[in-house]
Amino acid sequence: MTHGRIVLALSGASGAPYARAAIEALTAAGRRVLLIASPVARQVWQEELGEAFNAWLESLPAEKRALIELQNHQDVGAGCASGTFRHDGMLIIPCSAKTLAGIAHGYASNLTERAADVCLKERRRLVLVFRETPISLIHIDNMRAVTLAGGIVLPASPGFYHGDTSYQGLVNFVAGKALDLLDVPHDLFTRWKDPAERGD
Predict the structure, then answer these.
(1) Tell me: the pLDDT tens digits for 131-189?
(2) CATH code: domain of residue 15
(3) pLDDT tens-digit readout, 31-49
(4) N or C: which end of the chain has fewer CB within 10 A?
């Protein structure tokens, strides 16, 4: 993993705060971000965060904004739609049930699904932060299919043992777990320590 860039996609599920935390941490780590946001994801962002997606991007410091390359959600001819395009993995955060189904069944009807399909066929890291509850047998079967194909399904289920149970702390925990799976360093949460390390 030496290319320094991550494909990050937002689909139309609840969970825009997770995406925001992940983007901020990736750019803080100096990673280039190929950013895909579906039209519904942009609507959810506005609803959940109270600001337009593009306006938030433009508000980032110049050094962080320079690391982000916005992709067209419908452009299946983009670089990350090709197996010859190298990157360090893909994160879909949040991942809707519809996007999960498209990936599980190889539809590749938009750039997010196509880029994910490429990750699976090229055996690259693919992490889906699934944000739906409760889940049906259809969802379970689709998660199983993606897992068998080599993807990693990370439900948006925050832990409480890290000490920060504030709203942002719980958001950061989920985003941090996703970045761990892509080997991206971050300080989004305090890691568990063995009793001997804690001095218990």
Answers:
(1) 999 999 999 999 999 999 999 999 999 999 888 999 999 999 999 999 999 999 999 99
(2) 3.40.50.1950
(3) 999 999 999 999 999 999 9
(4) C
Q: Which residue has the tokens 């289920």?
A: 157
Cα distance between residue 14 and residue 129, in whole Å:
11
Beta bridge partners of 92: 9, 128
**Residue 1: per-residue pLDDT:** 46
b/e map 65-97, b = 16+ CB within 10 Å: eebbeebebeebebbbbeeebebbbbbbbbbbb
The verdict on residue 153 lying in a domain is yes
Q: Which domain range does residue 174 map to?
A: 5-89+100-124+144-184
Does any domain span residue 178? Answer: yes
Q: How many domains does the chain fold into?
A: 1
User: Within a domain: residue 130?
Assistant: no
Whole-prediction pTM: 0.95
Edge to edge, what strands does the sheet with 32-37 contain? 68-71, 32-37, 5-10, 90-95, 126-130, 152-153
Give me the residues paired with residue 128 across strands: 92, 153
Residue 136 is assigned to a structural domain of this protein: no
At 196, is the pLDDT very low, low, confident or very high (cuts 50, 70, 90)? low
